[in-house]
Amino acid sequence: MNTREWLRTEATLSLERLLPRVLAELEAARHHDPTGYVRFEARLKREWPRLFELLLDLYGQQYDFFYHLEAILLSTARAWASRRPALRALDEAREAEPTWFQQQTMVGAVLYIDLFAGTLTGLRERLPYLKQLGITYLHLMPLFLAPEGKNDGGYAVSSYRTVQPELGTMEELAELADTFREQGISLVVDFVFNHTSDEHEWAQRARAGEARYEQFYFIFPDRTIPDQYDLTLREIFPTVRRGNFTWDEAMGRWIWTTFNSFQWDLNYANPEVFRVMGEELLFLANVGVEVLRLDAVAFVWKRLGTNCENQPEAHKIIQAYNALTRIACPALLFKSEAIVHPDEVVKYIDQGEAQLSYNPLLMALCWEALATREVRLLAHSLSTRWRIAEGCSWVNYLRGHDDIGWTFDDDDARALQIDPWGHRQFLNAFYTGDHPASFARGVPFQANPATGDARISGTLASLAGLEAAMQQRDLRLIDLAVRRILLLHSIILSAGGMPLIYLGDEVATLNNYDYLYDPAQADDSRWIHRVRFNWEEHARWRDPELPEGKIFHELQRLIALRKSQPALAGMHLEVFATGNAHLLGYVRRHKGSRLVIIANVSELPQQLEANLLRLHGSGYRFRDLVSGNDIEASGTLSVEAYQFFWLERL
Ligand code: GLC
To answer: Where does the Glycosyl hydrolase family 13 catalytic domain lie (predicted)?
Structure first.
């Protein structure tokens, strides 16, 4: 018998042994929903061999492996049993149409509840605004119980089952999820699973010396082991603390903290951690959210002598969690937040792992193209690095609550005669306004003097030049900034995958420097772009004569246009050479529909050989859906400053 056959047999035998336990556990639920149960059991049988193998790989050496296996299975079964009928109906609908999120009608947005609407109730009242924009996917930034004061914007979670009291309650979140779903908006929340806050009950019990909880984290009596790890680890927040370990005064020991000192890394080599965090995951699924954003996925497995990022076991953990969701709550999707090298980002994307993923490369290179006024690195990376696993989707964004890191591949840059290190230095100088050709008003984030590395904070509008232009009261510069902002959005709305708008960007929110006066924020420049929504300014957004109004109005129009174009569904993207260093060209095709997109990333008008449209658009006459103008594919075509065309063949 080969290993594969052996595994199959073992998996089957183990399920045969465990099924009676599951049946006993689900007695009542089965009675209530016999057809639902049949489906559950079918999914369990389908997923079991995969789950069994993954867990065996991860935890097979544990003497009590089968005990953990059973506990994980029972947790999953209980999660199905407590799933509401409406969510079970959703499970069925999504299973019948598993790539629903690839439709061109999908448009995402992300917000902080307190900054956008105060509370969950306040958010409900803003539903008309979200509908007006055309949002169908809404990521609520961390809303869970977190320490007062510093909590990394909520990414230090003290309880996954409690909403931060100022924002509302879990019941309200569940009701909101139902209402929004009925209105065509899928809710998304974070699953912050790499670490808990140091105020989480588990952390407190570890601190108090309870052996069971000490094993949830990485705790060391002295520096011997931390020093060995630190040799090969990156520093993610070097301005907070050097190295990756924090001395905990109360415990008198060192604790692994990849991010802030109050964020304790969980130890996934402990199967109990896998199970209890799996229970939190399934709990959130049952609240009614449809997507979990898997925070900091790259870091969840540690291995001495490596940088402890993107380890094979990190993938297995996520795949095993994916299997649990397929069994208990198949409507749920994962979105991977892997802000790492592009080669690694794509490895998390799979129907059996994370179906959605942020696209940090597109994000960084959009900004890179604006700074250089050239598309070569963007075009090269799009043509070689776009493809991901079938049935999955990029989430394309321009700004978020985090910084911008220059995450392109060094060899991609070298292939284009770009020196990667020098280029990153240039981009940092450009976006902090420290370059003569810069229009941007950004600030550095986590500048590391030891490595010369830095990332960039700033709102989209400030980085795109609106802040400087408004201060100079220069109408021409304001106009250019507005055009840049629309051009960027045109790219994420048309490139393939789901666009994600950081709310506030649609009304050109500028940097807010107040964070410098708040001790809980002053050392984290990302607060410059986490700005309270100023609803008083609403009138400005309605006035298309003002930059805010123009952006809001045009963006709304582009979103509606995207939704009307079947060619923009799916993920198919063909980048072509435009023969002009400043023009990006690509074709989007889906089920017989086709659009040709052209974008000028410079402030000077550019010429395009119109013949290229014949070649790539297979036609002679086109309508630009953005301006409504008709275009003939002959001679040269002029593309104005930051203009973009969405061309449909006539
Ligand atoms: C993710 C979040 C970021 C946070 C970090 C630690 O990268 O987006 O805001 O600081 O994880 O949780």
So the answer is: 110-542
Q: CA 185, CA 106: separation in Å to the nearest integer?
A: 9
The tokens describing 314, both together, are 């990190």
Structurally, how many domains does the chain consist of? 2
For the segment 132-152, what is each residue's pLDDT rounded down to a tens digit? 999 999 999 999 999 999 999
In this structure, the residues whose C-beta lies within 6 A of any atom of ligand 1 are 152-153, 155, 192, 259, 295-296, 337, 401-402
Say if CB 335 and CB 189 are below 8 A apart: no
Residues 6+ apart with CB under 8 A from 326: 43, 46, 47
Task: Please give the number of the atom of ligand 1 that sits closest to the Cα of 259.
Answer: 6
Question: Could you give the CA distance from residue 119 to residue 616 in angstroms, rounded to a whole number?
Answer: 49
The CATH code of the domain that includes 233 is 3.90.400.10
Q: Whose CA is nearest to atom 8 of ligand 1?
A: 402
Nearest ligand 1 atom to the CA of 192 is 12
Please give the distance, rounded to the nearest whole angstrom, from the Cα atom of residue 295 to the centre of ligand 1.
6
Residues annotated catalytic, as ranges: 295, 337
Nearest Cα to 600, choosing from 622, 585, 579? 585
Residue 254 maps to a domain: yes
What is the pTM assigned to this prediction?
Answer: 0.97
Residue 126 falls in which region: left (phi positive, over 0), alpha (psi -120 to 50) or beta: alpha
* Token representation of residue 572: 């198919």
d(CA 76, CA 412): 44
Domain that holds residue 589: 568-649
- As to burial, measured by CB atoms within 10 angstroms (0-12 exposed, 13-18 middle, 19+ buried), residue 134 is buried
d(CA 71, CA 278): 11
Counting ligand 1 atoms within 8 A of each CB, the residue from 402, 407, 521, 529 with the most, and so the one to mutate, is 402
* Last residue within a domain, chosen from 265, 293, 308: 265
Name 596's bridge partners. Answer: 587, 647
